[in-house]
User: Fold this.
Amino acid sequence: MVDEREVSAYAGETLATVLLAQGITVFNRTLKGRPRGPYCNMGGCFECQVPMAYPGADTFNWVRACMVTADAGMKIVTGATLSAQPGKPTTAELTTATPGGSIAGKRP
Amino acid sequence: MSINPGTRQPETMKAELLIIGAGPAGMAAAEAAHGLGIDVVVVDEQAARGGQFLRQPPASFKLTDWLPGKTYSKAKTLLARSAELSDVKWLLRATVAGIFPVNNAQPGEARFRIIIDTQDGTQDWQARSVLIAGGCYDLPVTFPGWTIPGVMAAGGIQAFIKSQQLVPGQRFVLAGSHPLQLVIADQIIQAGGEVAAVLFAQSQSRALSLVRQPLTLWRHANKFIQMASILIRLRKAGVPVRFNQAVVQANGAEQLQSVSVASVNRQGEILKGASEEIECDRLGICYSFLSSAELVRQVNANCIWNARRGGWIAQHDHWMRSSIAGIYVAGETTGVAGSDTAMVEGKLAALGCALDLGQLQLSSAEQQALSMRRDLRRLNVFAELLSQLSWPNDAFFDQLISDSSIVCKCEELSAGELRQMLQDNPEISTASSAKLLSRAGMGLCQGRYCHHAVTRVVAQTRGLEEQEVVGFTSRFPAKPLSIGHLTELKG
Assistant:
């Protein structure tokens, strides 16, 4: 599930690949509302972070999309559904985007 | 989230040699050390062996021609052999957070404690010897718009193609000064993408200066033949390869729409006004590389600063021993030089380690090391020449870092704000004090993506050399670690 929408992926694809293949380039937003997407694709830059919940879980944690292999039942929220308004708290936006979910790992 | 310290204590695990990095250097070292009867564990953050050079597709992808060509054949053979090393423990998807010396370690006992973070929690390791072969990453280059989605490290684009069979965009521009961008442009074309332009900041004669060295040409003929065939393929595909040009700005709000290109003269000065715009949805930046030196610096092993060879370069003796007894270094950690060098250095480090553990006689080690050292001398001459021809001068980067560009992407600090803070605080003249003042380097990437730019800004503002600005202090944990995982640790 990406932003409440069901998408399919090949086994072994990373979350970053799944999102880019869906045409999603804005993976998250900064505290000032600026869009961000993958930069290094090797786990070092943290630009591709997305909140992700494991299959069956409703707790979201920030993960590096380039480092996590997609699995059936995973839920992801991306920058596509986050507000571009600067100053809006990112976590509040996340909660509305995932009804019933709670955000555990807040982006520091 | 509730935290219950003490409910799940990780047990301490032991190894004679713990190798950090499963790339060409780490795999070669593991194979050699295993052959010498050393108990080895290899740790890597990625899901598979091979490092960035051999980023592998998942086992579920059925490919018949993954990474064809001579460039990869030697390392691919090593990769295949390393899968057969049954006694070597491979700890993948695991991140080394820190290396700590064990106080009062007796001879024969573990000298280091290594904290490793995995998806399932933290692991506590003890090792007599540690080899740091952490590789390198694309030099992050700061210019207006570099944080817009669509701008990527060229190596990141390449990794999508190599390991995920994904062309991450439709129309690409590659900009930089390193010949690797020609290889990546070729891989994009072969995978079905369109390359609008490959831009080199330096002049054509400088980029091709290696060709004018007959001895180098002859010794590394394979590399030149490969490069020539790539250039022919790019020409056939109609890809313009231009020199004396640089991307000075990325344009787009939510997604990259175009890049602004300016001319660069022979002195590396970016000429203003002569701007052109190229439409593209993906820009790859390919100037140089930085060594992942955070663990070497965390253990206080001696490093020297050499921007064009990878930033912080670990110093070592002729057995790849760092300045800290029991810590060895190999691969890009000792200066960016590519996979061939990395494999030889890995083997040599394994010999050094076996020698120090008393599992190899000096005479035997010396004999085996002879040809390795000869290879290294030859390879290092090439790496040095390559870094000279592919490094724009330092002032080139200063011109890209205009006031409106974001220096620290995590803390969203602009170069203008940093320069103003430096002007208001004339006593600040090191990267670390600039960090305390501005928060640059305090975000999730821990300064990996701003330390070069911050160093440049401080050096330029104060009229200092880069090595005088010193760089950020490297601390535990080397990568972010959850509080939940941290509380599992004893002591």
